[in-house]
Amino acid sequence: MDTLTKLIATIEARKTADPESSWTAKLLAKGPEKCAEKFGEEAVEAIIEAVKDDKAALTTEAADVVYHLLVMLAARDVDFTDVLVELDRRTVQSGIDEKANR
Questions:
Q1: Angle of helix 55-75 versus helix 32-52 axis, rounded to 10
Q2: Is-contact 17 25, C-beta < 8 A?
Q3: Cα separation of the two ends of the chain
Q4: 25-31 long-range contacts, Cβ below 8 Å, gap at least 24?
Q5: % the chain with pLDDT above 70
Q6: 20: helix, coil or strand?
Q7: What is the pLDDT of residues 18-45, one digit of tens each?
Q8: Taking the CB of residue 14, how many other CB atoms lie within 10 A of it?
Q9: What angle do CA 45, 51, 57 make, to 5 degrees?
Q10: 99 three-class SS
Q11: Could you tell me if 25 and 14 are in contact, meaning their C-beta atoms sit under 8 angstroms apart?
């Protein structure tokens, strides 16, 4: 099982866990809006590190962004597999064509 698959499974398991037992359970218990807010905060931190060209800090923040994206998706019951299907759908055409077709 790869890291992403394990992380998704852990997040799913935390949806029913005691919020006092894990950060993920606590975040999910606060609701989708808080999960989205936290994702946004982490995305901004990643942007800051990218602009500063701090590769180590950007790596850390990117991991936070991926984790919080997955938590946000779980909070809204969006299966990550559906995200992958959408990405696959988009690879059959150029990004410019895909944006024009929206």
A1: 160
A2: yes
A3: 35
A4: 27/71, 28/71, 28/74, 28/75, 31/75
A5: 97
A6: coil
A7: 999 999 999 999 999 999 999 999 999 9
A8: 21
A9: 50
A10: helix
A11: yes
Look up residue 43 and give its two tokens: 């995305």
Place of tokens 């919020």: 19
Tokens encoding 74: 């779980």
What is the full DSSP assignment across 30-88? T-HHHHHHHHHHHHHHHHHHHHHT-HHHHHHHHHHHHHHHHHHHHHTT--HHHHHHHHH
Tokens 């909070």 belong to 75
Question: Measured between alpha carbons, how far is 73 from 101 in angstroms, rounded to an integer?
Answer: 25
Amino acid at 38: K
Residue indicated by tokens 């992958």: 84
- On the question of pLDDT at 74 being above 90, the answer is yes
Would you mind telling me the total number of residues written for the chain in this entry?
Answer: 102
Residue type, 91: T
**DSSP letter assigned to residue 18:** -
Other CB atoms within a 10 A radius of the CB of residue 28 amount to 22
